[in-house]
């Protein structure tokens, strides 16, 4: 008679996450992507991308001031108009000091522009290098032999210029798809605004923004890594990033409207909001890249390296012999033993 089976141990039962992963494949994919993101230090790279993003804004502002100085210097009538507006808005000595400060900035527009361009190029190369390295880590593409320093910097510069052009085109298309711009175009054609038309314009604006963001994120995810990756997986990951980015923009706009109402929020809110916006966007792009890298077609088995050649080593053990004192003692003991045996036989 056999004994009844013992009840299964509670520790052997799968946890709730394991059961959900076995039941829902999409949830298992999300957990794989999160594991890849954590293993590849996604938060660390997102913080680095945020730092270089904020750091690159200051030289870009310098370039913007230099461009504005060149425009005002070539348009004396526009410069006089701006100075008159400053004097009308800010009266007294402070307004005159602002005018003198603006004139000195216009006089030094060339040096400010050169310094701004050089600093922007340096910060931009750091931003691009960090971004490309982070994307390569998320994809799991590692270079055993990295190229030379000059070749790497030239590649990063080409990628930086391409990304800058893509961002400018994206911003332009997004501005054209803005609801206010569409309403102005309809008013220019003489079409009256109605409630149904306003709702339709909002929907079209959101769709245009999603499509443009989808294109930009797809190029970033699939073309910026240092090694070639699957463009098809990048397209799907770009769509996820674009939809999540639109939701994040909606929540961020509502939050900023409620924060910047006070004096402290008006002072520090834009800077903190920009930092949070850059950090969340970087995390979103890196997580979408990890999601693309953990799809079944990209999750190949890791190659098992062949064992090294067998090395046979002979081990020779040398045992030392008896020394002179030990040999003498052994002979003496043997002689005494033989003498004792012979006497025993005689008796």
H/E topology pattern:
HHHHHHHHHHHH
What gross morphology would you assign?
Answer: elongated
Q: Using only CA atoms, what is the Rg? A: 37 Å
Name the beta content range.
Answer: under 5%
Largest sheet: none
Q: What's the total helix number?
A: 12
**pLDDT < 50 runs, ≥5 residues:** none
Total separate domains: 2
Number of strands: 0
First-residue to last-residue Cα separation? 76 Å
Which structural class fits the helix and strand makeup?
mainly alpha
Would you mind describing this structure in some detail?
- This protein has helices spanning 16-23, 25-39, 42-74, 76-89, 93-107, 109-139, 149-176, 179-188, 195-223, 231-259, 263-293, 324-346.
- It has 347 residues and is mainly alpha-helical.
- It folds into two domains: 14-40 and 152-296, no CATH class; 41-136.
- Helix 6 (109-139) packs across helix 11 (263-293) and helix 10 runs antiparallel to helix 11.
- The mean pLDDT is 77.
Provide the descriptors you would attach to this structure in a database record:
elongated, mainly alpha, 0% strand, 2 domains, 347 residues
Topology (elements, then pairings):
Elements: H1 16-23, H2 25-39, H3 42-74, H4 76-89, H5 93-107, H6 109-139, H7 149-176, H8 179-188, H9 195-223, H10 231-259, H11 263-293, H12 324-346
Helix pairs in contact: 1-2, 2-11, 3-6, 3-11, 4-5, 6-7, 6-11, 7-9, 9-10, 9-11, 10-11
Précis, in short:
This protein is mainly alpha-helical. 77% of the residues lie in helices and 0% in strands.
